[in-house]
Amino acid sequence: MTVNLAVVGLGAFGHKHLDALTQIPDAKIQYVAHSTLEKAKEVADKYGAEAAFTSYSELLEQDDLDGVILATPTQMHHAQTLGALRAGKNVMVEIPMADSLAGVQEIVDAQKDTGLIAMAGHTRRFNPSHQYVHNRITAGEFSIQQMDVQTYFFRRTNTNALGQPRSWTDHLLWHHAAHTVDLFQYQTGEKIVKANAVQGPKHPELGIAMDMSIQLQSENGKICTLSLSFNNDGPIGTFFRYIGDTDTYIARYDDLVDGKETPIDVSKVAVSMNGIELQDREFVAAIKEKREPNSSVAQVLPCYVVLDALQQQLEY
Fold first, then answer.
1. Nearest CA to 241 among 122, 151, 137, 141?
2. Residue 114: which residues within 8 A CB-CB, separation 6 or more?
3. All domains of the chain, ordered by start, with CATH?
4. Beta carbons of 53 and 31 less than 8 angstroms apart
5. How many other C-beta atoms lie within 10 A of the C-beta of residue 71?
6. What sign has the CA pseudo-torsion 185, 188, 193, 194?
């Protein structure tokens, strides 16, 4: 069975998904969609898609479409995810799947009502580096005591991951912190029972906090400290230090070293070293096998409960 997919939103992450799908034998890039028809047609030609769309509703009417991957601006995620489910299409949405807890809950309820596959792009669950650690945890060989995480960008103007101007504003809490909050609960297997946050001044033009610090504690006492910044003039990305009862690991996207910076070979952990590709493979497999995927919207709901609590702290 070939799974026919559409990628909606053709910015930096849309292209990451398109490149990933070309590596998955049972996935076909059937359609692409973007706000600008010229760009949509250009990308359709490049990736061999059957057609390009600017109308999302028209795209969802295609009978041969099995699922959509949403790499659109954050503010569109909620409505577009609901639109896909109500049109009978499986959906994977980049994080955050909504920018409010109420919106996330509505998506979780819609998935339950339809029985379709609905998955959120919490890629850290799929990176080989984090999978390696997860496998050691599930084997009983490693237990997290503390996670120290740095999420740093140099983004004092409104640009995307490729350094190109973008039309929407990113968010440290609802986007970047979501990766770590979900990963902490996923890796510990425990619910977060304490969460605290402070933030720095808001940017005068972007209207968002440029620096943030978050503390988390799980129900059995494991802790996580997360520092986030759009002001860091240095290497960009997220760096995870796992401090455990037997080892220390430092994960940088798909790479892993121990506490002494000795590289660890994670090339055999999965069929690819690309976390986005592994995430997309899970989406395709779940559609074919008619099963709940890892990082389903229901599984990641607890992450957004914590984000909502942190937002209330920051506001009040």
1. 151
2. 85, 86, 88
3. 3-122+276-295 (3.40.50.720), 127-269 (3.30.360.10)
4. yes
5. 23
6. negative
The pTM (predicted TM-score) of the whole model is 0.93
Tell me what pLDDT residue 308 has. 96
Pick 166 or 261 by higher pLDDT.
261
Burial class (CB in 10 A: 0-12, 13-18, 19+), 172: buried
State how far the Cα of 205 lies from the Cα of 223, in Å rounded to an integer.
34
Give 109-176 as a DSSP string.
HHHHHH---EEE--GGGTSHHHHHHHHHHHTTS--EEEEEEEEE-B-SSSB-TTS-B-SS---IIIII
Structure-block tokens of residue 50? 């059957």
Tokens of 42: 């250009």
Are 297 and 118 in contact by the 8 Å Cβ rule? The answer is yes
Neighbours of 169 (CB within 10 A): 14
CA distances (Å), 132 to each of 142, 243, 273, 300, 303, in order? 11, 14, 12, 20, 22
